[in-house]
Amino acid sequence: MLITPRTLSGFKDYMPEEALQKENLLQTCIPIFRSFGFMPIQTPHLEYAEILSKQGSEEIQKEMYRFTDHGGREVALRFDQTVPLARFVTQHKNLGMPFKRYAIGNVFRGERAQKGRYREFTQCDFDFVGSDSVCADAEIVQVIDTCMQALDVGAFCIAFNHRKILDGIAQMVDVAQNLPAVLRAIDKLDKIGKEGVESELRNIGLSHEQIARFFDFVLLEAKGEKIGTMLADALQKADNPTFQQGVHELQQFYTLLQALGICTNRLRLAFSIARGLGYYTGIVYETTLDSHPELGSVCSGGRYDNLTQNFATEKLSGVGASIGIDRLLAALEHRPKTQNQKTLVVAMELEYLAYCAKAAATLRAKGMVVELYPDIVRLKKALQYANTRGYDRVAIVGSDEFAQQTITFKDMQSGEQHSKSIDSL
Amino acid sequence: MLITPRTLSGFKDYMPEEALQKENLLQTCIPIFRSFGFMPIQTPHLEYAEILSKQGSEEIQKEMYRFTDHGGREVALRFDQTVPLARFVTQHKNLGMPFKRYAIGNVFRGERAQKGRYREFTQCDFDFVGSDSVCADAEIVQVIDTCMQALDVGAFCIAFNHRKILDGIAQMVDVAQNLPAVLRAIDKLDKIGKEGVESELRNIGLSHEQIARFFDFVLLEAKGEKIGTMLADALQKADNPTFQQGVHELQQFYTLLQALGICTNRLRLAFSIARGLGYYTGIVYETTLDSHPELGSVCSGGRYDNLTQNFATEKLSGVGASIGIDRLLAALEHRPKTQNQKTLVVAMELEYLAYCAKAAATLRAKGMVVELYPDIVRLKKALQYANTRGYDRVAIVGSDEFAQQTITFKDMQSGEQHSKSIDSL
What we know:
The structure is a homodimer.
Chain A: H1 16-35, E1 39-40, E2 46-48, H2 49-52, H3 58-63, E3 66-68, E4 74-77, H4 82-91, E5 99-108, E6 120-129, H5 134-151, E7 156-162, H6 163-172, H7 179-187, H8 189-204, H9 208-218, E8 221-223, H10 226-237, H11 241-259, E9 267-270, E10 283-289, E11 299-304, E12 318-323, H12 325-332, E13 342-347, H13 353-365, E14 369-372, H14 379-388, E15 393-397, H15 399-404, E16 406-411, E17 417-421
Parallel strand pairs in A: 1-5, 7-9, 13-14, 13-15
Antiparallel strand pairs in A: 2-4, 3-4, 5-6, 6-12, 7-10, 8-9, 10-11, 11-12, 15-16, 16-17
Helix pairs in contact in A: 1-5, 1-12, 5-11, 6-11, 7-8, 10-11
């Protein structure tokens, strides 16, 4: 009885080209993380359910893959890498602070399956634990900036804000008791526009006046060199201490970003940015691609002061970001693939195989990608295979080549052929 | 109420140094896989339980992490990457054959926890699907050989055999009906010695004579250049057609390995090698490190003719191997870590932070690993931190350095200090 081969709904196979691009993308970022002194760690995919509970939103908790293992333990697949990080830094006492780590791994959320959203997906996180310095915030943005440039995804913009700005505005507009709902509403600004947010705020119970005053602050934004002026103006405009503290920290942050040599043209300050997740408490940021605004943020993060609150009384803060691997892959999808020249070596008779294998080894030793076709087939079939696999040239060994100790190279693009002696390879 | 931070029994965290070494190890192998035309694929960690059932040993089935998901589906965590490969190649019809892929991922087995054995571990597999050519077998060994040399783990030995040799011997000794038990016994030769195997064979019911004849064949082995003679002699010695076919294929295989330039000194032919897993049907191999025989095989594989039997009527054969990442890490554990020079930059006052950040960025742009200490602390604390983290030197910016636009570098090994102007970096 045959079993129908299929993947679970919401789960996907990465096909070779896509998996290659994903691997290349990560291999571009890893040396950058390392150059800033971040070190990798790996934690299990499976944790005690208790460790992962009481964390994340109610929705995330409902979507968690939970079950009882062979030993009767309640276990669950991780839904992010931040809760395991909190567990890690409290469990291993001698890490020393600050602790900088990156982690690349898959996480699981049993969300309703929808286009482009998967129940298993890869997170690439880098975090800075145990430092309250704004320098750590700036460095995270510097790492984002460096990665985005290295990934060669075209023009991008890093937009930022401070949660205290939103807290302060909420206090000034007197909606602090409704903060979560207000944050959820403003978080949708990009999607539903000003009118949409306005209608949501009205539903929450904000008066016409409150909404006007709210928008008066929350819609403020500036790009590039105007950021400094916007911050100075904002300080004049509001006398709320929470708001002012947010502005002061943003000023330090912005000064540091400039000192780090980050091009201000790529920066945008927007008081409307909330970043959905509840745990952020400080500066937050998100990155969008000019060529693919529809993808939303491809890299976002921020500061969270309560990282380890469920595991320890001692407070440890964190600041970090996550690169959206799948969104970046979507942006890179239509890019021409630039790869090393690839050669397929084909033996026309069994007795030429060893000869071909040796030639392949010689070419490979020079750094080329060389595949040796393992079977004896008609040339037409081998050429078809080379075509499907995107090989640039085919190296053929028939009776003439074998007798004269040569190889015939056929260019798959132009169809041109030329012979080379085996010694000259 | 605080939750005790802990990992599940049998699961482990990779600490930074170990995770770094693991990452380096994989990044050494990946370009090699690619240079032979292998492409990466990734399949989900979670599959329909049905897909993974009827595969592997009874033990593996019992150890599988199975549960019911939110949608009432019976699902399971994969226990290897070979069954998902079989599912993959039958599900995606247009891959074209032969199909060469590598896959690096974690697998789960709820084994009894014991030292050095984990319930979640990483497999690094490379396989060649859809070719019956012995050239594919030889190439897999060539990839193993190339990887082992690149990993710089010292002298190693690739031992090989053919399952038909064992089938043939079993026929000649007339124990073919007991083959699985006989294979299990001979598989333990390294662990329990000849006497141990003898006693197991007696328990299975083999006569004194049968055991003597069995050993007469199964203990044959040769290293290096003597392999050719051993094969020729074996052919003379036995007239069983299965055995003879095995010898013929091994002869072709050995000729190809030589043609590929693999140093015969690293090769060993041993008729006792069975490789535990039931699914091998052709040539099998295993790799041991001369300096760490106790680790067993660090890379093994072979040919299996029935890859897709549960998913399709069309027969697809496979040949591949798996690199034992954790065993290799254990072998590398006591190696001195060779890393890029690492610098920790320390600002003695808050107003020097931007200056330091800029210096760090300059050094980093030259390819160095540079961490900027994000807080203002006493120098002693920063030096301690540098020491714990294995930094080679600390770059200090105090009032003198800031005024003179210099940096003082302190070598952590020698304690020596010298100053450099910021412009000369």
